[in-house]
Design brief:
Blueprint: H1 9-12, E1 33-34, E2 42-46, E3 49-53, E4 63-69, E5 78-83, E6 86-90, E7 99-101, E8 113-117, E9 120-124, E10 131-134, E11 137-139, E12 158-162, E13 165-169, E14 177-180, E15 207-210, E16 215-221, E17 224-229, E18 233-241, E19 247-253, E20 266-269, E21 272-276, E22 282-287, E23 296-300, H2 303-312, E24 321-325, E25 330-335, E26 345-350, H3 351-357
Length: 359
């Protein structure tokens, strides 16, 4: 089934008007997109274009993940891919050949996520120990937290780098914990994947944040790390000193916020975060400028879109995802219709229209 758009005019400024499949160009977003497929499960954002890939559940030959590597560098720009259970890297500035990254410790290509730190790419899947990709070499140098008995039990599913530390979560034995690494410096960059040490000493030891429900996603805003649970959202604006001389990360709930479906169902859009909730809402999180930008507020989007989601979209949102195209200032949400198995529906939000109308 080809890609479809839907007639919801109060969000996208006309970009959601219905089009016949024959009217949709194969590269749809000309000069900014290629290989667009309606059934895509994952996408990769690079300067200049967006690439999509299929997820073939249960088929080890499917492309499981795509992500940028050195995406903001003019030279040595690379793409990272997981195909089945094998990792690949390509440098488009040199050629089109994908180089396999062989690592016997990487055995599961499902639900892969990545994040970058300098010249390193961190790869998570929630099953194996996290990978560090350096060039075309994969290693597993992550030092486990003291609270986890064996290194093989430290298997985060997603992570972000914030304030010089790596925040990770999704460990199956501790699904409600966010682990933070030691603080890295230019002289000790390896500390970014060292989670060892007694909790509480700033810079020299790791830390943990315990929440009351399962953590589903981590995202970054300009001055905060946002933690999504199954039923709520918290933000971490920084650290606070404790009376005993230690420290802890400050955590504050975002009032009125619902949880997020998964890591790939959240995306940063300029200084905001857009996300898909388990009850089929599209919501955004932004700073409350009326309060000196010290708090967060959350907004639902269009009622017309909500009605469409409630009536037409499948209750199983496990494959739903979203991403932002900064060139076009548009955010995209991919869903599947009731009874379907792939994400044939894409809802587009034009930021110029959303900002103007306050949707």
């Amino acid at each position: 089934m080809p890609l479809q758009t839907i007639p919801v005019r109060d969000l996208g400024g006309g970009v959601n008007d219905f089009n016949l499949p024959s009217n949709i160009d194969p590269s749809e977003m000309q000069n900014t997109s290629r290989n667009v497929r309606g059934e895509a499960e994952y996408c990769i954002q690079r300067p200049g274009y967006v690439t999509f890939a299929d997820l073939k559940t249960g088929n080890t030959s499917g492309i499981r993940w795509l992500s940028p590597y050195f995406a903001q560098v003019d030279t040595n720009d690379r793409l990272f891919m997981v195909y089945g259970t094998t990792m690949y890297l390509v440098d488009p500035t040199v050629g089109e050949t994908w180089t396999a990254i062989v690592d016997a410790n990487f055995t599961n290509g499902d639900n892969v996520t990545t994040c970058c730190f300098g010249g390193w790419l961190f790869v998570f899947n929630g099953v194996n120990q996290a990978q560090k990709i350096d060039g075309t070499t994969a290693t597993q140098p992550f030092v486990k937290p003291d609270s986890i008995g064996a290194a093989s039990g430290f298997t985060p599913a997603f992570g972000v780098v914030y304030a010089g530390s790596l925040f990770v979560s999704g460990v199956s034995t501790a699904p409600n914990v966010v682990y933070t690494s030691k603080t890295s410096t230019s002289a000790s960059q390896e500390d970014v994947y060292d989670f060892s040490g007694a909790i509480g000493t700033l810079g020299t030891d790791a830390n943990e944040m315990l929440f009351d429900n399962r953590v589903t996603a981590l995202q970054l805003m300009s001055t905060a790390c946002v933690v999504f649970l199954t039923d709520s959202v918290w933000y971490v604006p920084g650290i606070k000193d404790l009376a005993d001389g230690g420290y802890d990360y400050e955590r504050q709930p975002i009032g009125g916020a619902y949880g997020a479906v998964s890591q790939k169902a959240t995306c940063a859009v300029n200084n905001d975060i857009y996300y898909i909730t388990p009850n089929k809402q599209i919501r955004s999180i932004r700073r409350d400028i009326s309060n000196n930008q010290q708090s967060m507020i959350t907004f639902p989007l269009s009622k017309k879109i909500q009605n469409f989601l409630d009536e037409q979209i499948d209750d199983d949102l496990s494959s739903a995802f979203c991403y932002f195209n900064p060139q076009r200032r548009e955010v995209y949400f991919h869903f599947r219709l009731k009874g379907e198995v792939s994400n044939f529906i894409r809802i587009t939000g034009n930021m110029d229209r959303v900002d103007k109308d306050g949707c």
